[in-house]
Design goal:
Layout: H1 4-9, E1 21-25, E2 29-34, E3 47-52, H2 60-71, E4 75-79, H3 97-103, H4 113-129, E5 134-140, H5 142-149, E6 155-161, H6 168-172, E7 178-185, H7 191-204, E8 208-217, H8 220-223, H9 229-249, H10 253-260, E9 268-275, E10 285-290, E11 296-297, H11 300-305, H12 308-326, E12 329-330, E13 334-337, E14 347-349, H13 354-359, H14 370-383, H15 394-413, E15 424-427, E16 436-438, E17 444-447, E18 454-457
Parallel strand pairs: 3-4, 3-5, 5-6, 6-7, 7-8
Antiparallel strand pairs: 1-2, 2-4, 9-10, 11-16, 12-15, 13-14, 13-18, 15-18, 16-17
Length: 477
């Protein structure tokens, strides 16, 4: 049986002319970018793919495969995770894989977590800079492990082929859909490891799929011999499976919400503006037509006075709603907005808020970090104190200035450096009691007024203030 080194370094270079271009990521890492051609019928404007290659890095085959993904409508970025130190094709007799990984070819260019993780994080940031709201990642051999490791860094959906050195603990921790493509003959990802991978993915409770192609070896999905029919078939099917996986799970925000939550919301039948809705009016109106939700807005006083069983049912349902929202992760901070292309799938656009609307402030672009968002929120609070007030005393003004200064320190404490770049999760932002429709037994029948729904930093994803005792029970705000 061939060794892992032989499997990882053998294969066939494919013929073709790459259509993308080289670029530099974070001022120091090489990358190859391939964009959908103008003739492509479907272009995923909000979703992009990060390609983490096998040991050959950015080379002929990875460029051509990136072009193939681009032809399916996905902008694809191939990242040089080996820092200009790839292996050469069919070099297994002259290479010691463990030494190359721990030291690099020159002895001072390791390909370990400490050195590769920052490259992957820079690649994810590059995808955000390109404007992609949801980031998919495809990884081969060594690159596969880093797809799994970086769901926490902003990867929304992954597909890996013939992974090398993948641990169960890493698979158990994935936070999004993962597709695994395996070879029957693979000393790096054996049958036993496949079984363990399935067990780990079951524990993750995320969508997953494991497909094994018979009669092929490690590396087939990226380096198949075009003269061998079985290899070509397996490679082509593996690629089609990856595209289908991303088409299903790396979707626009609303499709993702509808597919992955059971939050009760009224189905929208139609909406628009500039419509003449009354015979007597000379003006035009905006409108929204939804299904009717039977019930009434929650009265907090009734909740407080209700029996223990009714309260437990209500709290359990509310927790379920918050848990569903927590599971929806995005690469940027922004508001769900209508798609400018006119189709039914919203995009993650500029940050909107009730406070900014009240102050008539302009909207700002989607934020990339929690620090930017927290700073924006502090500026919003400060803006409420800008308009002059006639009856304020000097003592009142001093108290407000003192409070704002103290608030700045409190806001700074919210920033967790480990979570600064994500994940960002969907929040209703206006889940006051009157936006929760309940029946006579306080069972939640629907939630309304989602117009300010936004992806927010995990640090500020909290239950509504009235449920945590920070808002008076005497009001229904």
């Amino acid at each position: 049986m061939a060794s892992s080194a032989q499997h990882c370094t053998t294969g066939t270079m494919h013929k073709g002319e790459p259509k993308g271009h080289m670029t530099i990521v974070d001022g120091k890492y090489d990358a190859y970018i391939s964009e959908p051609p103008q003739t492509t019928t479907t272009t995923h404007k909000e979703c992009g793919l990060l390609y983490l290659p096998d040991a050959f890095g950015i080379w002929q085959n990875s460029k051509l495969m990136a072009d193939d993904f681009a032809a399916q409508g996905y902008t694809c970025v191939v990242l040089d995770i080996y820092n200009r130190d790839p292996l050469r094709l069919n070099s297994f007799r002259n290479i010691d894989i463990p030494t190359w990984l721990s030291q690099g070819s020159s002895g001072d260019n390791p390909h370990t977590f400490e050195f590769v993780d920052p490259i992957v994080i820079a690649g994810i940031q590059k995808m955000r800079d390109l404007g992609f709201v949801r980031i998919g990642a495809v990884g081969y051999c060594f690159g596969a492990r880093y797809v799994v490791r970086h769901f926490a860094s902003g990867i929304s959906c992954g597909c890996i082929a013939h992974p090398y050195s993948l641990e169960q603990e890493e698979l158990s921790a994935v936070s999004g859909p993962l597709c695994v493509i395996a070879a029957e003959n693979d000393t790096a990802f054996t049958m036993e490891k496949r079984y363990r991978a399935e067990e780990a993915l079951r524990r993750s409770k995320r969508p997953f799929q494991i497909t094994v192609f018979s009669g092929v070896d490690h590396g087939f999905a990226a380096r198949a011999n075009p003269k061998i029919k079985t290899q070509c078939y397996a490679k082509d099917e593996a690629f089609r499976q990856a595209v289908a996986w991303f088409d299903c799970y790396l979707e626009e925000p609303t499709e993702f919400v509808e597919r992955n939550t059971r939050i009760p919301v009224p189905h929208i039948r139609a909406y628009g503006r500039d419509a003449k809705l009354t015979e007597s009016s000379s003006g035009m109106q905006m409108y929204l037509i939804t299904d009717f939700i039977p019930g009434e807005s929650l009265d907090k006083r009734l909740l407080v006075e209700a029996g223990e069983e009714s309260r437990q049912i209500f709290y359990s349902q509310l927790i379920d709603i918050l848990a569903e929202l927590r599971n929806l992760e995005f690469a940027l901070i922004g508001s769900l907005m209508p798609n400018p292309d006119g189709n039914t799938h919203p995009i993650l656009g500029p940050v909107m808020s009730m406070s900014a609307t009240t102050l008539r402030l302009p909207t700002l672009p989607a934020f990339k970090t929690a620090k930017e968002y927290i700073g924006y929120q502090l500026d919003l609070v400060s803006s409420f104190y800008v308009p002059p007030v006639a009856d304020h005393t000097v003592e009142d003004i001093r108290a407000e200035v003192f409070a704002l200064d103290g608030m700045k320190r409190m806001f700074d404490q919210l920033i967790d450096t480990d979570l600064n770049a994500g994940p960002f999760v969907l929040s209703h932002l206006d889940l006051r009691s009157r936006n929760i429709i309940v029946d006579e037994n306080l069972r939640i029948r629907g939630t309304i007024d989602w117009e300010f729904a936004s992806a927010v930093p995990l640090q500020v994803f909290t239950p509504p203030s009235w449920i945590t005792g920070h808002n008076s029970v005497s009001t229904n705000k």
